[in-house]
Amino acid sequence: IDKNEVERGMVIAKPGSVHPHTKFKGQVYVLKKEEGGRHTPFFNGYRPQFYFRTTDVTGVIKLPEGTEMVMPGDNIVMEIELIAPIAMEEGLRFAIREGGRTVGAGVVTEIIE
After folding, report:
1. Which residues does the UniProt record annotate as the domain Translation elongation factor EFTu/EF1A C-terminal (predicted)?
2. pLDDT of residue 15
3. What is the pLDDT of residues 33-46, one digit of tens each?
4. Which of 36, 80, 81, 112 has its C-alpha lying 20 to 30 A from 87's C-alpha?
């Protein structure tokens, strides 16, 4: 592989060892206002940026059945669908960002597709 073929955010791995995915479940902690997070709750369909390693991609959040909103300070398992595939595996940590600030942190708990 030539150096000019690699860009920030790319993953170099042995062929077949890492697979790109778009849909997963994640255990997420939503930062409180005092921690620099959101001041208001978010709802189903919220579309923040997800940061994995050194790359970021927009994703859509699907809350668990019966959960209407997520408040700052909450811990929750949610389903996330990214608009572009990312190389990931269970246990991979990610940050959730909005408007240039981190509003949550999570870990991939289950790959869906």
Report:
1. 17-111
2. 87
3. 999 999 999 999 99
4. 36
Tokens coding 101: 């600030």
Q: Per-residue DSSP letters for 32-68?
A: PGGGT--SS-EETT---EEEETTEEEEEEEEPPTT--
With a threshold of 0.85, does the pTM exceed it? yes
CB-based contact 42:69 (threshold 8 Å): yes
Domain ranges (residues) in the chain: 3-111
CB 94 within 8 A of CB 36: no
Q: Are 81 and 63 in contact (CB under 8 A)?
A: no
Question: What would the two tokens of residue 9 be?
Answer: 């955010």
Half-sphere exposure of 65 (CA within 13 A, CB side): 0
Superfamily name with CATH number, domain 3-111: Translation factors (2.40.30.10)
Q: With 90 as the cut, is the pLDDT of residue 51 above it?
A: yes
